Amino acid sequence: MAVIEVTDLTKDYGSVLGADSLSFTVEEGEVFGFLGPNGAGKTTTIRTLLGLLSPTSGTATVLGADVRDEAALLEAKRRIGYLPAHLGFDEDVTGKRVLDYHASVKGDGRRDELLEIFTPPVERPIREYSTGNERMLGIVQAFMHDPDLVIMDEPTSGLDPLKQEAFNEFIREERERGTTVFFSSHVLSEVRRICDRVGILREGRLVGLEDVETLLDQGGKRVRVQTADGTSTGLATLDGVINVSTFADGVQFIYTGDYNMLLRELASHDVREVEISEPPLEDVFMHYYGTDEPEPSGQEVKSNV
């Protein structure tokens, strides 16, 4: 059963299309990553799914409720958890009071369990919270009523590495319980660990809909090599090397070719330092979905897209 079904969804702000004829589904029990650089339209889509924005055309259903039907969507929201990118908690109240308020609206049967995993200082006022503590409080409120569907916008922003891994493990366990999770991100490493499928958004349009392994195969690896003799010409000419840039005594590029060939070429150099990592999502877009420069970081907030 499709928990989320989006059909030709469009949100036109006049000067920009926040969502441009989007169509996709999210299945029951699936962890679905909604990916794209800042300004791609991720937040617009999420806010439209939750009825916070009205579509210009097209529609979507969430847990069977049409997003244009306010009464039906209100009933469905009892079974939905939501973690926005910008939490907006009242800074003068304690974390406990925030959770008590949400509990009065939707219940909190899993509050204690969640507070053992995510540990915001609930007795302190929000104004004393770090970004990570505020994010953990948001995660607790999103899941504490045991929803069927959880929608999150950049859920791990501000979490330290240990809490990020705790979050990833928690989401994997939620998938085993049958919870459907839909979240936006621009971090490939995060998506790799927990998602089943991804929808890839660019400038309001869905430019890819695929499983995680396919995405990672297309994305390749970012390689940064510094050699003792400063010679790295052979590396830059390998099949599968793109987006090459040079720096003192070294070279950086995206590699989508055969890894054994890369390792053989590295072995022929006097390597001082090498770093191999996931490429930024923007690089995946630029190579596989067009060569135009992605919108600059922060554009999504400025344009309310």
UniProtKB/TrEMBL annotation:
Name the UniProt record assigns to this protein: ABC transporter ATP-binding protein
Protein family per UniProt: Belongs to the ABC transporter superfamily.
Taxonomic lineage of the native organism: Archaea, Methanobacteriati, Methanobacteriota, Stenosarchaea group, Halobacteria
Organism: Natrinema zhouii
Nucleotide-binding recorded as keyword: yes
Residues annotated as domain ABC transporter: 4-228
InterPro entries in alphabetical order: AAA+_ATPase, ABC_transporter-like_ATP-bd, P-loop_NTPase
Pfam families: ABC_tran
GO molecular function list: ATP binding; ATP hydrolysis activity
Alphabetic keyword roster: ATP-binding, Nucleotide-binding, Transport
Record has Nucleotide-binding as a keyword: yes
